[in-house]
Amino acid sequence: MAKLPLVAIVGRPNVGKSTLFNRLVGKRLALVDDRPGVTRDRREGDANLLGLDFRVIDTAGFEEDDPETLPGRMRAQTQAAVIQADVALFLIDSRAGVTPLDEEIARWLRSGDTPVILLANKAEGRAGESGVLEAFGLGFGDPVPFSAEHGEGMADLFEALLPHIDRPDDGSEEQEEEEPAEDGPLKLAIVGRPNAGKSTLVNRMLGEERMITGPEAGITRDSISIDWEWQGRPVRLIDTAGLRRKAKVEDKLERLSAADTRHSIDFAEVVVLLLDATRGLEAQDLRIADQVLQEGRALVIALNKWDVADNPPALFQGVRAALDEGLAQVKGLPLLTVSAFTGRGIDQLIDVAFQTRDAWSRRVSTGQLNRWFERAIEQNPPPAPGGKRIKLRYLTQARTRPPSFVLFGTRVDQLPESYRRYLVNGIRRDLGFGAVPVRLTVRAPRNPFDR
After folding, report:
1. 196 is in an annotated binding site
2. Beta-bridge partner residues of 91
3. Is residue 246 marked as binding?
């Protein structure tokens, strides 16, 4: 498939960059709030504007600060996005007019080689007319009056983008359609408490400073999806905001970030729960793990900062025992040790993630399943509550991802939870599902005389 052109959105804080990003991708992917500086890392998404396909990058607000500060590190991410883009959309707030920071950004953009389209945002009505006129002085030709909030000016933006984005001809489109479809990328989400090292781990995997990192807790706000390749196999990495205990979350923006992380878990295939080895396993880690399993996602646990951990053997055994006790429904979850700082253990982590996805996607034939089922019942027959026998007839796999099974029989509504766990544990152990979440529902045949 042909690589899509890259379009970067730049501008000072709070001019509507994330609103424009959401408008172009057709979804509310980027967090939007009235306060400035919500976006920190650069987020990418596939956009379509009146039939024009491209990849759009939402960037942090451009601020003049020391490179070592958080705003300075955010600016470095914005600069990297513009350098790699085919064209930059420079947003100003037409209602506020051209500010000194707008002029500073314009000077920086003029010094580079990336073509620039000037968008005068918030131009709906007459309140933005003076700002549009001021924008002529920035030196990028005619500004495009636009409203990201209301979708006004989309046709003008299309016309401005067209010279910078090559549209594939019919032949290339047909060629793309004829290519055989490959297995989709491994959708791998990295989750955990704040400051566990999630963004540092993603940067180490990618081999570049793609995500903003630092000693401050809670730097990452949006869930950022990045396409990557590991040993020739496609991976979609998802870096997420740290999850704190709900009772500690009071800020609206942190609630939005937490909701974005939960949304990413829903759409992941494998979730890596990253623990801080210097702090061990905490109650919040178990809550996050339980949430992942409740959503039916495959789960891998990774102990980060292993290069600076105290008494590693005892720490590993203690975490292993605590996981098996706290997550008794899926004993034996993969537990690995990594160092995002040195890169130790990352190849093993990705390899285990692929193996875990294979188990999560596994389907067992009905014949194999019921041969196992007959042996399981023979070794441990179901109980007879009240002296009345529960008759289990057969078992079938209804779906995969997560593996889900339906058990048919009579009086199955009285089947004890302990016996269901016996069956689920046996399915995991004997049929190759490992420690992925397995769902089992019971169903009795309908009684024709029951009204």
Report:
1. yes
2. 119
3. no
Q: How confident is the model at residue 216 (pLDDT cuts 50, 70, 90)?
A: low
Q: Tell whether 450 is covered by a domain.
A: no
State pLDDT tens for residues 16-69.
888 899 889 886 654 444 444 445 457 788 888 888 899 998 887 676 655 555
The rounded mean pLDDT for the chain is 83
CA angle 111, 116, 119 (to 5 degrees): 130
Q: Is residue 113 a known part of a binding site?
A: no
Nearest CA to 262 out of 277, 235, 237, 241 is that of 241
Here the tokens at position 380 are 């441990």
pLDDT tens sequence across 286-332 = 999 999 999 999 999 999 999 999 999 999 999 999 999 999 888 88
DSSP class of residue 147?
B
Report the pLDDT averaged over residues 91-96: 92
- Is 444 marked as a binding-site residue? no
| Structural domains of the chain, count | 3
Judge whether 124 is annotated as a binding position.
yes
Location of structure tokens 């020739």: 232
Same domain, yes or no, for 174 and 194?
Answer: no
CATH number at 146 reads 3.40.50.300
User: Which range marks the domain in which residue 105 is found?
Assistant: 6-178
Mean pLDDT of 394-404: 92
Contacts 24+ apart (CB under 8 A), 243-248: 243/191, 243/192, 243/193, 243/194, 243/284, 243/288, 244/193, 244/194, 244/284, 245/283, 245/284, 245/287
Q: Which of 5, 153, 2 has its CA nearest to residue 87?
A: 5
Q: Is 121 annotated as a binding residue?
A: yes
Helix (H, G, I), strand (E, B) or coil at 77: helix
Residue 413: which CATH number? 3.30.300.20
Residue 226's pLDDT band (boundaries 50, 70, 90)? Answer: confident
Residue 309 near residue 278, CB atoms below 8 Å: yes
Q: What does each C-alpha distance from 17 to 41, 135, 225 come to in angstroms?
A: 13, 17, 18
16 marked as part of a ligand binding site: yes
* pTM exceeding 0.85: no
Rounded CA gap, 148 and 263, in Å?
24
